Amino acid sequence: MLLEIQDIHVHYGKIAALKGITLEVDEGEIVTLIGANGAGKTTTLKTISGLRPLTSGRVRFNGDDISRMPGHKRVLVGIGQSPEGRGIFPGMTVEDNLYMGAYARSGDLSKELAEVYELFPRLAERKTQAGGTMSGGEQQMLAIGRALMARPKVLLLDEPSMGLAPKLVQQIFSIIVEINRRGTTVLLVEQNAQQALQIANRAYVLETGHVVKSAQAHALLDDPEVRAAYLGGGAGGEAAVAAAPAETSVPEAREAPDEE
Amino acid sequence: MLRRSRPFDEGDRYVLDSFLNQFWPATVDGLSLGAIYSLVALGYTMVYGVLRLINFAHSEVFMIGTFAALLTVELTGITSPLGTVPLIAFVLLLALVAGLVSGGTAVALEFVAYRPLRRRGASRLAALISAIGASLFLQQLFALVVIPWMFDRPKEGGRLPVQSADFVEPVNLFSIGPIDIRSDKLIIFVGAILMMVALDMFVNRTKLGRGIRATAQDPETAVLMGVNIDRIVTATFMLGGAMAGVAAALYLMRFEETEYFVGFLLGIKAFTAAVLGGIGNLRGALAGGMVLGLIEMYGSAAFGSEWRDVIAFSVLVLVLMFRPTGILGESLQQARA
């Protein structure tokens, strides 16, 4: 297992946010966490990346216990994150934001930079623009591209579809598939359960700090309880965009229109 | 009431005349004083940008810098005034020593007075109280212990000003029209500007500088990028302290004396300059310091020097009423600088 979360409890003050979450992510997978607001999805990601201290439980990465490792060192072992709300440094240019992604590394970064620009041609066009003046979709691309600059083994994505128009959501999801196809493991937190379940291999359903279900992603798409709670109840499954094969979806991403 | 109806009375004429007569000298004095304010203001603004903390003990970082410079003058045994070129070299030495001592003091403050509070998740208010406490502690420590010991004085002597040897011979280097440019004031102005340009380049062009900006803009995301926040905070205190140390060396050259209380008013003025320029903004500290220095000197020229502080702080209040974010507005969080 690349990433193992073992019975973690996390508190904000006296309030318990995570009440014993256990989950695993294997190398090469896309795993998604779905659930309502306040279920603990973001806290789980923040705990993995070391922003929130554990009350109890363990986080293991690549076989090592990293429960006590400070957050800034976890980037170096291979955990990259695109945070909730994107976390773009507003006063820095696009390129400076990307260099921040590789802050923990040293040496030549031209290869990583070229790769990110290839994946997100839009960012190449906006190199010198201040991050804070970009559209939501562009900021999301920048947040993902920035995380990739550190060459993470696992990429944690917190609500990449938040606030984006459906067409752009589709584009971001096909890029996630492509990133995974190129060898990066993905742990995806989403409210947009429909889309997330379609690209994921496996999924965990979180409710108020607990894992209430875990299964193959396609199985959850057909699960009546999950459908009722997270997929809008109806038979929307076919209407949504299927996870497009990466080969066709990425050129499409490149030519994407400006809109959000 | 009759008086009021006259548009321009004798008193007004006096104020205007005296202002016009002293306009150019006041400009020169204002810029060299403003340069010192600006350098000290950088320390307030950088720490605020990264930690959202007003480091009120920064005035004592400056004070300790003046004593480091003074002690260096004593140790080199200089007793007669230096010509312009040797003076520049000597001031560089003073700035280096005072910069290191003040930078070190600022870092020590962070380790003793602020970091332990942050570790325990204390509120910003607690850190502020700790800052004020550290400021008073250092003042009294110097008055009661350090100054009497360092200058071999009786205990009561600690509160008296300490003169340095007379190592500056101010000469008029040249004149631009009616403006006489004196060597010591020019050294202050040029020295301060060079330091600020260097700091600006450091923050905008180096990796550590990028880390400082990232931490100021979004500390949590900075951690996700692999930024060690503790190291950034240490660097920020070091840089801000070093700037105050350079200011202290320049101050000592200009006034040739210092005392345990020297940082108090100057610190408040520098803090005012930082707020005036837009706190958190490096270039704002420069602008705020210069504006404050000029206002003080123009104000003294017009109304007499006893009004200088009243005028300076009135302007601060007025500016903030109409532009609460200061002259340059944006902060280290949003701006590139």
Q: Strands, helices and their partners?
A:
The complex is a heterodimer of chains A (260) and B (337).
Chain A: E1 3-12, E2 15-25, E3 30-35, H1 41-48, E4 56-61, E5 64-65, H2 71-77, E6 79-82, H3 94-101, H4 110-119, H5 121-125, H6 136-148, E7 154-158, H7 166-181, E8 185-190, H8 193-199, E9 202-207, E10 210-216, H9 217-221, H10 224-230, H11 246-254
Chain B: H1 2-5, H2 10-21, H3 23-51, H4 58-76, H5 84-119, H6 124-150, E1 162-163, E2 172-176, E3 179-182, H7 183-205, H8 207-217, H9 219-224, H10 229-255, E4 257-258, H11 262-277, H12 282-303, H13 308-322
Antiparallel strand pairs in B: 1-4, 2-3
Largest sheet strand order of chain A: 6-7-8-3-9-10
Q: How far from one another are the termini of chain B?
A: 52 Å
Distance between the termini of chain A: 37 Å
Large-scale geometry of chain A? globular
CATH-defined architecture of the domain at 3-84 and 153-160 and 171-254 in chain A: 3-Layer(aba) Sandwich
Tell me the structural class of chain A. alpha/beta
- CATH level-4 homologous superfamily of the domain at 3-84 and 153-160 and 171-254 in chain A: P-loop containing nucleotide triphosphate hydrolases
Secondary-structure element series of chain B: HHHHHHEEEHHHHEHHH
Describe the protein in words.
The complex is a heterodimer of chains A (260) and B (337). With 260 residues, chain A is α/β, with parallel strands linked by helices. Chain A has a domain at 3-84 and 153-160 and 171-254: 3-Layer(aba) Sandwich (Rossmann fold), CATH 3.40.50.300. Chain A has helices at 41-48, 71-77, 94-101, 110-119, 121-125, 136-148, 166-181, 193-199, 217-221, 224-230, 246-254, and strands spanning 3-12, 15-25, 30-35, 56-61, 64-65, 79-82, 154-158, 185-190, 202-207, 210-216. Chain A has a six-stranded mixed beta sheet with strand order 6-7-8-3-9-10, sandwiched between helices. A four-stranded antiparallel beta sheet of chain A has the order 2-1-4-5, with helices on one face. In chain A, helix 3 (94-101) packs parallel to helix 6 and helix 7 (166-181) packs across helix 11. The radius of gyration of chain A is 18 Å and the shape is globular. Chain A starts with a strand and ends in a 6-residue tail after the last helix. The model of chain A is unreliable at 234-260 (pLDDT under 50). Chain B has 337 residues and is mainly alpha-helical. Helices cover 73% and strands 4% of the residues of chain B. Chain B has 13 helices and four strands. In chain B, the strands form two sheets. A two-stranded antiparallel ribbon of chain B has the order 1-4. Chain B has a two-stranded antiparallel ribbon with strand order 2-3. The interface between A and B is medium-sized, with 29 and 23 residues.
